[in-house]
Amino acid sequence: MAVLDAPAPPVPSAPPSVRRRPDVPAARPHAAPVARPRRARDPFVDVVRALGTLGVVLLHWLMAEATWDGRTLLVGNALGHGAGWLVTWLQPLALLFFAAGASAGYQRGATVVGGRGWAGTVLARLRATARPVGAFVGAWALAVAALLALGVPDDAVWRMALMAPQLLWFLGVWVVLMTLTPLLRAAWQRWRWGALAVAVALPLALDALRFGLPGELTGALAWANVLLAWAAPFLAGIAYASERSVPRRPALDRTTGAAADPLAGRTARLLLAAGAVAAVAATAVLVAVGPYPLSLVGMPGDEISNLGPPTAPVVAHAVAQVCLVLLFRTALVRRAATGAGARAVGALARRSMTVYLWHLTAMFAVVGVALLGLGQELPASWGADWWASRPVWFAAYLLVLLALVRVFGRFEDRRRS
Known about the structure:
Elements: H1 43-62, E1 66-68, E2 73-75, H2 85-88, H3 93-114, H4 118-149, H5 154-163, H6 169-179, H7 181-191, H8 193-212, H9 216-221, H10 225-245, H11 266-289, H12 312-327, H13 329-335, H14 339-373, H15 384-408
Antiparallel strand pairs: 1-2
């Protein structure tokens, strides 16, 4: 809300016997700074973040595979059997980094307009993120101590305790990219599509060095792709937000007279569709002829993981995902604008960090009770019992997750963009 000048207090009437001097206009005070209205949330960014979060949750819940012989907990991956690798092609990490980049792009635009420093924005985001992460780490520390005190086998407790925080790698990459946002935004504004081309080419070149040149140095250097591979969709998000933040006279739709969406134009849609098709084809060719496994996530027994560090197929897959969500942007926003879709996206936007942090814990709790508490065995992956029991297991995971979100959601900052 803009700050308005307060009205001057009324001047008391002068007595009739007193000659009143003509009013002299008071000196105009310095104009008070006018607070800019808070930027409305971009529903598209919320939708993309929601799709990415739900995709991560569902993919991890499909992976549940474990056996317990009374002494040792063996953890596998249900998607490592048969055609399960096809499901891994739905891994949505690029969507999460695109949404994070768009959010950072909007925030950077606001700090430039308001003349504020970027360091303060980064610190504020870190403080907001530290609350849910701190609650997660603290709760797990207490849970480990409690489970060990209750006599739960050490092997099972420590196996779960080591797996749960693996999700925090995303936050580490996000912190670095968030810090680099001013440089990335400046690169987009100066070099435009050339900046995006370089962002895609760098991890591809590093991957080529990794597999084209022998030596431990190139293998260690390949870990730079943990940052470079995800910088590409992050920069795409910055570019999207930067273009929508720049004040310009919008083109008008010839049919409706309303402001036209540049992403909805025929040429833009054809380019996005062609980019998605080419990127998917490149992913398929790379896993078919290269040294890469079929799965786009790490699988037990594979010599190479396409995610640790990210490889060329993952980079191509990220390009395809960004092209697809931009291609269907209008439809996605329309679906999430009203009714149940709007409520679901809004609820997940407020608690996306909590859901991301705790969804594995919910799965561990259900599987642990079934294996260790009830002595049951999980159904064989991809068998008829496995398919038939998915709704029951997913319902149990969801109930536990909802309870965890209710308890720990209070630590998440609701004012995220």
